[in-house]
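W.,

You were right to be curious about this one. When I first looked at the sequence I had no strong expectations either way, so I just let the prediction run and decided to look at it fresh. Below is the sequence, 165 residues in total, followed by the output.
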Amino acid sequence: MKEILILSATVSQNSNDISLENILSFLAIVVSVCSFIINLYFENKRSKREVATRIFQDIYFKYMQYTIPRSDSNISFNSTSSKLEGITEMTIMLHNLRKKSNSYKFTDKEFHKKVVNYIIELENFYSDSLNTVTDSERYQKFKIDSTKQIEGLYRILNKKLEKGK
């Protein structure tokens, strides 16, 4: 009789162990599937951010590193003719930058509107200054204002880059 009770207890314990093993296996599978889905989500998000960053770099990095500073440094005041020089090149460069920004017209309308409107303001600023800067005192003020305007453009572009949208 003792043997039957021991055998019965052993069978009962084995069925509980199997049940616990099944539960643990099921939980492991659920955790693995959830982990896979979460990794897939974040990997997809990271890939999209990398593509957006590459597109931004292709459009703006050359302008930010070379073209804008070079165009800005080429602006000078000719005291003989009392006129600014280099403004035409700057406005052409800004026009080209504005055209290149059109790719964001379809992917990030808010950024597109902001950057294009700001570039238009810059173009107007430089065009207007062509007729108003007629002496070295006004040229000094123009250079300060020009630097502030360019810094504004860089702020917009850097914010977009940091956002990585």
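Here's what jumped out at me. Strands lie at 76-78, 83-85. And, maybe more interesting for your project: The chain is about 85% helix and 5% strand.

Coffee later to discuss?

I.
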